[in-house]
Design brief:
It is a single chain. The protein is of the alpha+beta class. The protein has two domains: 4-229, P-loop containing nucleotide triphosphate hydrolases (Rossmann fold, 3-Layer(aba) Sandwich); 237-352, no CATH class. The protein has helices spanning 42-50, 96-101, 113-121, 137-149, 167-184, 195-201, 219-224, 229-234; strands at 4-13, 16-26, 31-35, 57-62, 65-69, 72-73, 81-84, 155-159, 188-192, 204-209, 212-217, 239-246, 249-252, 255-260, 271-277, 282-285, 293-302, 307-315, 322-330, 338-344, 348-352. A hairpin with a 6-residue loop joins β18 and β19.
């Protein structure tokens, strides 16, 4: 079992507390993504697990082996951990096969069947004799993964593995890497600032901000049921509305909405705060209907597969009026500016006291 366990990890670099009380569990054979903005501590966490940074406090365990803890710090080469760097870092003077073999113990590098096995695993069968310069960026990244997998490591660490790829390549290479990790039953930790990457590649996603884990759950729960507004704002677009809640119903600029508590849901205490919806929960309705809330299309962004339409709605009367702009995700083109009505489907998440 190659479960990665990180408990109460603190790392200080200079005068800066980079990681604070980090607790993370990556089950054997699974992929966990650590998602967060630049400067939140993602790379430091990866380097601490790899052994390049010595923590101030806490424990890191891979399987039954404590690789870092009180009075113990195994050198990187003794941890059985492989690292796939951001841009692959292949040796340009070596063939693909020799690059992959470099990950093996010296005695196994010549004519080892393992090279062909892992190249087949990453979808590059027959590429042994090619030069890295003959490969696309996505192929080079898969060779780097093959080199990491060759010695059958306990754990593979991937540092922003797709950031150097063109946007058109990322989706296909993500799927290929995910498939290779699944077929090899490798435990993997991926760090990234790209939410699409984290949600599509990982079995679970940990949100890291200012050195702390804010939430660790399945991609579905991180997106649909964020435990705090900070998580909600970082993962996808949010529609945030001031609200007053009573008996599980929030009074908002979009009308009365059924609300659930942060995280997995549950009962909501009465009070003021913020409700959060995803843009796909909103829909545009005919202006001459009675359902929904009256508003006005004021613009939007078109992405080809869908669009985010900006609608301004006004609720209340007289001095109590509230005018807010909301985003509605639609399939198709952005409607012309003008009157429309906005409906809501599904429950909203309520964050008491938030602003």
């Amino acid at each position: 079992m190659n479960t990665l366990s990180i408990r109460d990890l603190d790392v200080t670099l200079g005068d800066l507390a980079v990681l604070r009380g980090v607790h993370l569990e990556v089950p054997s054979g699974s992929v966990t993504a650590v998602l967060g903005p630049s400067g939140c501590g993602k790379t430091t966490l990866l380097r601490a697990v790899a052994g390049f940074v010595r923590p101030d406090r806490g424990e890191i365990r891979v399987g039954d082996t404590v690789v870092s803890g009180p009075g113990r710090h195994l050198a990187p080469e003794r941890r059985g951990i492989a690292l796939v760097p951001q841009e692959g870092a292949l040796f340009p003077h070596l063939s693909v096969g020799d690059n992959v073999a470099f990950g093996l113990p010296r005695a196994q590098r010549r004519r080892s069947p393992r090279v062909a096995e892992v190249l087949d695993l990453v979808g590059l069968r027959g590429f042994q004799d090619r030069s890295p310069s003959e490969l696309s960026g996505g192929q080079q990244q898969r060779v780097a993964l093959a080199r990491a997998l060759a010695p059958s490591p306990s754990l593979v660490l991937l540092d922003e593995p797709f950031s150097a790829l063109d946007a058109g390549l990322r989706e296909s290479v993500r799927a290929q890497v995910r498939d290779a990790l699944e077929r090899s039953a490798t435990t993997a930790l991926v760090v990234t600032h790209d939410q699409d990457e984290a949600l599509s590649v990982a079995d679970s996603v940990a949100i890291l901000d200012e050195g702390r884990i804010l939430m660790h759950a399945s991609p579905q729960d991180v997106y649909r049921a964020p435990t705090g507004l900070g998580v909600a704002r970082f993962v996808g677009q949010c529609v945030e509305l001031s609200a007053e809640v009573s008996a599980g119903v929030a009074r908002t600029a979009l009308g009365d909405l059924v609300v659930e508590a942060p995280g997995a849901g549950g009962e909501v205490d009465a009070g003021r705060g913020v409700v959060m919806l995803r843009p796909e929960q909103l829909r545009l309705l005919p202006v001459d209907g009675v359902a929904g809330t009256a508003g006005e299309v004021v613009g939007g962004e078109y992405f080809g597969h869908d669009a985010l339409v900006r609608v301004r709605v006004t609720a209340g009367q007289g001095s109590g009026q509230e005018s807010v702009e909301v985003q509605v995700r639609t399939l198709g083109e952005i409607p012309e500016r003008g009157a429309v009505r906005v409906g809501v489907s599904g429950p909203a998440r309520f964050y008491p006291g938030a602003r």
